[in-house]
Design a protein that fits this description.
The protein is α/β, with parallel strands linked by helices. Helix content is about 45%, strand content about 15%. Helix 2 packs across helix 4, helix 2 packs across helix 6 and helix 9 packs across helix 10.
Length: about 425
């Protein structure tokens, strides 16, 4: 799917595998029932997994930390391995009974249910643990089952990435770490680390800038530090995009696909709150969220504008020192955060996205002043959305005014974070 910045894969990573391991001996039917309801909402009703899990946890406020961890992690893992588990069952799950058994397959393969315990749960008595494990071993010989991915998407990845696809796909099935970005408008990374420790949140620094990685997955949105705007939740790879644009205090910067504003806020911090950032999006509710986040972060140099027609863009032509085009994309680089995306994507959808990406490059690039810089970025790893889009742009009449200064692809296997692509271009005339 395209990046749902308003909810944000950066904000909603709630899987908790380390905590779930502690609940292995106490699988409770009530919790399984909640997971079953969540899976039906995702696969039958078509809702996004992150929003479903968020809603389920909100509807069960009295659930303890371990129960919430069990619900979130079990749901995400079954979404991640939906094809493998369905093949083990030999059916395409559609009914409540099917989804109960899907959860049972997961719990058996993870060692949380033994042959003695399976019959104790009425809905799982049709499952035979030895058969489940044997079938899983047989299916795992084929990559499309082992990594649980649609045939067409596996073929596309192989075609686009070649030998790199196998390792990349494996990493895209690993739960993602939770990373914070210290809001330097209010606090340093070192001071934030100390502050979070007083609230029971252990983090470790990563890289040379503002990133802090959670040592244990927990709900950081309930901390006073978050409510005071001292940090945002933003993956480390995502944190590389704003600095790549080289923004400076006092500049006029346009974030043309701002969404909920994760990178907009980062730009404001890098600019020390000086200058102007114009944040654009086609959806007003996303800009409403951005304004709320900006108030909390004390990012007072952000102005929002809704793109309700071509004139909004044309009025900005030749006005920006910097332009960020963090365009809608397939989100292939963040499947570990949004595993349901691989079941919702289609070849036609990706093809249409590519047309949208090129349209944005062609239509929005004149916003940059002569001598200014533009970054084209995606959280995809497919060259058809990345390098090929940039080359097509540079070979077009509009792109003749630009030169490519640098480009980077961040692979999940490099440092264990999300997959991203970014290209830095300068307008020469």
């Amino acid at each position: 799917m395209h990046k749902r910045k308003g909810y944000g894969f950066e904000e909603r990573a709630v899987a908790l595998p380390a905590v779930m391991a502690a609940t292995a001996l106490t699988v409770r039917p009530l919790l399984v029932r909640i997971v079953v309801q969540a899976l039906q909402a995702i696969f039958v009703e078509g809702h996004h997994a992150d929003k479903v899990v968020e809603q389920v946890l909100r509807q069960n406020p009295k659930a303890g930390r371990r129960d919430r961890a069990f619900i979130a992690e079990t749901t995400y893992e079954i979404v991640r391995y939906f094809r493998l588990y369905s093949a083990i069952l030999g059916v395409e799950p559609k009914t409540g009974e099917h989804f109960w058994q899907l959860v049972g397959v997961h719990l058996i393969l993870r060692g949380y249910l033994s042959a003695e315990k399976v019959p104790l749960i009425a809905e799982l008595r049709a499952l035979h643990p030895d058969h489940v494990r044997q079938r899983a071993q047989q299916l795992a010989r084929e990559r499309v089952y082992r990594e649980s991915i649609p045939d067409w998407l596996d073929a596309l990845g192989q075609n686009q990435l070649g030998d790199r696809w196998e390792e990349t796909l494996s990493w895209l099935n690993r739960p993602a770490p939770i990373v914070l970005r210290a809001n330097r408008l209010k606090i340093s990374r070192e001071a934030l680390q100390s502050r979070l420790k007083t609230e029971g949140v252990e983090v470790r620094p990563h890289g040379t800038a503002d990133a802090l990685v959670l040592m244990r997955r927990q709900n950081v949105f309930q901390t006073r530090a978050f409510r005071e705007g001292l940090f945002e939740v933003q993956d480390y790879s995502s944190q590389q995009v704003a600095p790549f644009l080289e923004p400076l205090p006092g500049m006029r910067v346009v974030d043309a696909c701002a969404g909920g504003g994760g990178k907009t806020l980062h730009l404001a911090a890098l600019m020390e709150g000086k200058g102007t950032i114009i944040a654009l999006d086609t959806l007003p509710w996303k800009l409403n969220e951005l304004r709320a986040r900006a108030r909390r972060a004390a990012a007072h140099n952000i102005e929002t504008r809704c793109i309700d027609g071509a004139k909004v863009i044309k009025r900005l032509y030749h006005s920006a020192d910097r332009l960020l085009l963090d365009v809608p994309c397939s989100g292939l680089g963040v499947l570990r955060r949004n595993p349901d995306a691989k079941w919702k994507l289609t070849p036609d959808f990706i093809e249409n996205l590519c047309q949208t990406q090129q349209h944005i490059l062609q239509s929005y690039s004149p916003i940059v002043k002569v001598g200014g810089l533009m970054v084209y970025a995606t959280c995809s790893l497919l060259p058809m959305e990345n390098e090929q889009q940039v080359r097509s742009f540079l070979n077009s009449p509009s792109g003749q005014n630009f030169t490519l200064c640098a480009e980077r692809t961040l692979w999940p296997q490099d440092e264990g974070f999300d997959g991203f692509y970014m290209a830095l271009l300068r307008r020469e005339r």
